[in-house]
User: Which sequence fits this backbone?
């Protein structure tokens, strides 16, 4: 998608182009529709709340950092993914992504050890703050660092977005995890057990003037002594930008 970005595009335009690209390749439904944020919006401004919907007026500048995030459903499986990029080389972003790669390398072991979700959240929060970054995912709904994902029923059914303005989520979101009860489905600062299954993990740090994140699917096969957890796509970390080779099939 980076190759298709150009100064002057709005966040809303980029997000809709992402949806159109996916739908041309067979996607019919979403866990959430595509999101795009530019510049200061990549750290949600003041960080006081999750400013979800892409702006129809904020336009891409040549020096902006960009976050792209999308969650198509393919054959019933949720692909909740995201990454951070920029049109021009950005040393501070390179440093931030190096830190995110460090977190990415450490997260599977935290899950495999069987730590409670709040302990994993605090470990990531402590790392970010020790490195001098803000914890932007603390401004997400329920302060989530991640959430469970499941194979959803009726994957080709175009379900409407949930009501409430500012929410890109669909009824598939509800059927996927909210209907099971939020406890245990979200990886946040409140005590819960991080169980086996598939997790969409999205650490989001805030630097001066921009934010950076990645989002990938973590497979947790078992926890405790001998536990095993691994990234579903370990060949191409989403902290990097090598995404163009991936094709969506239906």
Assistant:
């Amino acid at each position: 998608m980076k190759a298709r970005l150009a100064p002057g595009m709005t966040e809303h335009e980029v997000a809709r182009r992402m949806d159109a690209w996916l739908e041309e390749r067979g996607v019919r439904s979403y866990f959430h529709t595509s999101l795009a944020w530019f510049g200061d919006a990549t750290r949600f401004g003041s960080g006081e709340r999750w400013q979800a919907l892409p702006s129809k007026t904020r336009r891409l500048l040549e020096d902006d950092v960009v976050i792209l995030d999308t969650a198509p459903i393919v054959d019933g499986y949720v692909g909740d993914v995201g990454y951070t990029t920029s049109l021009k080389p950005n040393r501070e972003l390179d440093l931030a992504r190096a830190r995110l790669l460090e977190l990415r390398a450490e997260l599977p072991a935290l899950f495999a050890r069987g730590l409670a979700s709040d302990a994993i959240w605090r470990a990531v929060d402590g790392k970010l703050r020790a490195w001098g970054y803000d914890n932007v995912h603390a401004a997400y709904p329920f302060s989530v660092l991640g959430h469970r994902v499941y194979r959803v029923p009726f994957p080709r059914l175009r379900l409407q977005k949930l009501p409430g303005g500012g929410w890109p989520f669909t009824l598939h979101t509800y059927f996927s995890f909210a209907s099971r009860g939020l406890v245990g489905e979200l990886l946040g600062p409140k005590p819960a057990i991080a169980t086996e299954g598939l997790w969409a993990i999205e650490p989001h740090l805030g630097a001066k003037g921009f934010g950076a994140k990645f989002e990938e699917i973590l497979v947790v096969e078992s926890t405790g002594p001998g536990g095993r957890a691994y990234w579903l796509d370990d060949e191409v970390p989403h902290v990097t930008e090598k995404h163009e080779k991936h094709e969506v099939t239906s």
